[in-house]
Amino acid sequence: MPILKRMSAALILTVGAAMPAMADDPATCGTVHLSDPGWTDITATNGVAAVVLSALGYTPDIATLSVPVGYEALKNGQTDVFLGNWMPAQQKFRDDLDATGDIEELVQNLEGAKFTLAVNKAGADAGVADFADLDAQKDAFEGKIYGIEPGAPANQSIQAMIEADEFGLGDWELVESGEQAMLAQVGRNQDAGTPTVFLAWAPHPMNEAIEITYLSGGDKQFGPDFGGATVHTLARKEWAASCPNAAKLFGQLTFDIGMENVLMGKILDDGMGAQNAAKEWIAANPEAVKPWLDGVTTLEGEPAEDALMAAVAE
Length: 314
What we know:
transmembrane transporter activity; D-Maltodextrin-Binding Protein, domain 2; 9 strands; alpha/beta; two-stranded parallel ribbon; choline binding; disordered N terminus; signal
């Protein structure tokens, strides 16, 4: 090769090596819209997503929306990603979204979850271990089942059970409130020794704070294995196609029960903000985040892992 050609080739290689890989996402992908139904587990995972997105140069925009409104927002293009598709409890909403053809599942982000009715220690001591045991103890339970926010699919399942008089519960009352209000009431009842039946789930630090007995017999309402569930990440197809770098991140962003219990404990018990809890966890578990960032760059095309670890070290 002539000297001039060799020099030119070397110059091209040197310049090319010095230039960062170009990000796949245009500037229009800079803001990522998510929703949070007010559940601490999704608040925690949204916190993780927000920390990673911010470190990579994106701006997370998280709206607090009830489950039905959140699904409508995803369907109507007001949000881009939802980390809280609990299945099979949200099958009805999922079917509605799938029918539009505009939504895709990016990943199953959690397995080993469960979600069904449970009783506190006083309820278990009263002999309640199954849905069918409840009605015989109606007076002790004051005929109340404590649920979460209005419109939640789990509440709908409970209300349908009451209206159908299943297990003799036709004259019971569903008390709807947010997660924190429900757990505060359960805590007060526990301190008073009052039998209480309520929606319970894992992951959640309630499983450490309250002596919980998950009830059998609710397979029809919540699914087998005490409402055994998986959680999925959904995104708008148009967004995922337009923003492949961010979509790749969300397609690799997975969690486990232990991690979420820790994060939720920091939020609920220690009063930490979700993003501060996520930063602390990521800084302490650098190896765990590597799979999330495989093949992902910052919005500017720089290495994602370096940017994230620098951000959580601040």
